[in-house]
Design goal:
8-stranded mixed beta sheet, transmembrane, MlaD family protein, single chain, Mce/MlaD
């Protein structure tokens, strides 16, 4: 029996609608030709999770959210379908999260470590993982609260300033601003003076650079001087200073003993130092010797008689 054109057209439209529906569900993650196991999750707030949202395990889509039902006890029941190929151990947790800023909410299953596998239609514990926007909002809330408090305090401060700033205070402020302006002009003048002296300052800097360059060029000589100085100090430190000090102390002791003997009149030096008569005799002898030498200079013929020819010369009286 041949089909009419209308029947063929209707059949093609039905097939197209079916293909589009199957493709749409497939793109959403539903696999109409495979069986799934259902599980139930209960949330206080689904945070924008929608039916047909993906269910992931370690980033791989393994199912979808099939139904979201608001319960009478203010709990939200979420029914998920997971492929039978995925085994969910006990301790698995269902978490609502946001993959990124632009994506919708999804559900991911954090698998437990138990060897016991959950049965179909079992209840899975839940939690909510804050997304990037939630984290930003959570960080902004304290900042906004603090900003509000700061604004209130600033308003109070401004009111206090308006109360304090009477006519006399305002006049004082004007005078202070005038003084500040004068100070700034003086500072500008000082800056101009410094600019005029910048050439001399540059010369000083060049001289300093030249000195440092000379020091760098003579670093070998400086090192030699320091080496010699270190060697000298090492020799001094190694010298037998203790022995020299002991010898000097012994010499001083002997000198002190000698001076004691002299003071007591012991020995020749002691007798000479303490015998007054000997001193007087020596003084008298020296005086006589001076007179003799003086007379010898004046009348040498009295003491030296040398005659080669003729008579000896007569001394003047």
């Amino acid at each position: 029996m041949a089909l009419s054109k209308e029947a063929k057209t209707g059949l093609m439209v039905a097939i197209s609608i079916a293909v589009i529906a199957v493709g749409t569900y497939y793109l959403k993650g539903f696999n109409l030709f495979s069986s799934e196991k259902k599980y139930y999750c209960y949330f206080d707030n689904v945070e924008g999770l929608a039916e047909s949202s993906t269910v992931q395990v370690k980033g791989k889509v393994v199912g979808n959210v099939t139904r979201i039902i608001l319960q009478g006890n203010d709990k939200v029941k979420v029914e998920i379908g997971v492929s039978k190929k995925v085994q969910l151990p006990q301790g698995t947790v269902a978490a609502i999260f946001s993959p990124d800023l632009m994506s919708a909410k999804s559900l991911k299953l954090e698998l437990g470590n138990s060897s016991t596998i959950l049965n179909a239609e079992a209840e899975i514990p839940t939690k909510i993982i804050p997304g990037p926007i939630d984290k930003i909002t959570g960080q902004l809330d304290p900042i906004m609260t603090n900003a509000g408090q700061v604004i209130l305090r600033l308003d109070s401060v401004m009111l206090a300033i308006q109360t304090v700033l009477d006519a006399e205070t305002q006049q004082n402020l004007h005078q202070s601003m005038a003084s500040l302006e004068t100070t700034m002009r003086n500072f500008a003048s000082l800056s101009a003076s410094l600019n005029r002296e910048s050439a001399q300052l540059a010369g000083v800097i060049r001289n300093a650079n030249s000195i440092t360059a000379n020091i760098a060029r003579n670093s070998d000589n400086i090192d030699g001087i320091m080496t010699n100085l270190r060697s000298t100090t090492d020799k001094l430190s190694k010298a037998e200073l203790d022995q020299m000090v002991n010898k000097l102390e012994q010499t001083l002791n002997e000198t002190q003993i000698l001076m004691g003997k002299i003071n007591r009149g012991e020995g020749s030096l002691g007798m000479m130092a303490n015998d007054k008569q000997l001193y007087n005799n020596l003084s008298s002898s020296l005086t006589s010797l001076d007179k003799l030498l003086d007379d010898l200079k004046k009348h040498p013929s009295r003491y030296i008689n040398i005659r080669l020819f003729g008579r000896a010369p007569k001394d003047n009286p």
